[in-house]
Write a structure and sequence with these properties.
With about 250 residues, the protein is α+β, with helices and mostly antiparallel strands. It is built from five helices and 14 strands. The longest helix has 11 residues. It is globular.
């Protein structure tokens, strides 16, 4: 059973941690893995997620495929840690659905144009297949890995930790704010569609330096833009991250 939204909000209030403090409480700050590339499951405290029994263990591709079979949409996702960084690994039946008509509840990865919060065009999600510099992000194994820090106030969005319309087990095409299976930030209600890949722009909060990145689309809430992707490989059955774009994960620094 997932937490209700009121229960989750109550945890924040009772802990008196604030948004960033609650994120640290929820996810922890370090990885127990001996490998810099390994991604381990992290079961958020106080929740009853499908991967509770695998907390701290390396993520495997088969575990996501098996859990996706229990979903009406064929999707699954889990929170994890990579070298101390919070991530969300998301499984989408892209290979099975990508050639079908674009209809409700048959999810696949979609590629869209990205625009800054001020409306300036940045680029296209199609660049992961068009530009060599982004080749390691090309869709494979029906999965993506997302750096899970909200560009609003650096909280940590989760996957189906609360029950509401945004987290329901359904899917609408087009990258709108309608439908479920969103990554939902329980701190301030920002939403992200993990099936929509776009190019966008963010900045380092300390230096002010701007950078372009490939990530998922922000669909609603106070966050200005979406969250960046992390390239990965499936080594045997283990999911291992690649450090190709470390600068993309500095916007909360």
């Amino acid at each position: 059973m997932r937490l209700s939204f009121n229960t989750a909000a109550g945890l924040i209030t009772m802990a008196s941690l604030g948004s960033v403090g609650f994120a640290s409480f929820l996810m922890g700050q370090s990885s127990s893995s001996d490998s810099d590339s390994a991604i381990t499951f992290y079961a958020p405290k106080g929740s009853d997620v499908w991967y509770n029994s695998m907390d701290g263990q390396p993520m495997t591709h088969q575990s996501f495929a098996a859990e996706a079979a229990n979903s009406d949409t064929g999707m699954s996702a889990a929170a994890g840690l990579w070298s101390g960084l919070p991530v969300i690994a998301t499984y989408v039946p892209h290979q099975e659905n990508s050639r079908k008509p674009l209809v409700e509840n048959e999810p696949r990865f979609q590629f869209q144009d990205g625009f800054t919060s001020s409306g300036a065009y940045v680029g296209s999600g199609y660049e992961i297949d068009e530009k060599e510099e982004y080749a390691s992000l090309s869709i494979h194994d029906n999965m993506i890995i997302i750096f899970s820090r909200c560009p609003h106030l650096c909280c940590i969005p989760g996957w189906q930790l609360v029950n509401n319309d945004f987290t329901a087990d359904n899917w609408y095409p087009g990258g709108t704010d309608s439908g479920g299976n969103k990554l939902f930030c329980i701190c301030h209600s920002s939403r992200y569609d993990p099936t929509v890949i776009e190019k966008n722009r963010n900045r380092n909060r300390s230096s002010g330096a701007e950078f372009d990145y490939i990530g998922i689309k922000r669909t609603g809430g106070p966050a200005p833009v979406g969250m960046p992707l992390i390239p990965f490989v499936v080594n045997g059955d283990l999911i291992e991250a690649l450090p190709d774009f470390k600068d993309w994960y500095t916007f909360c620094a």
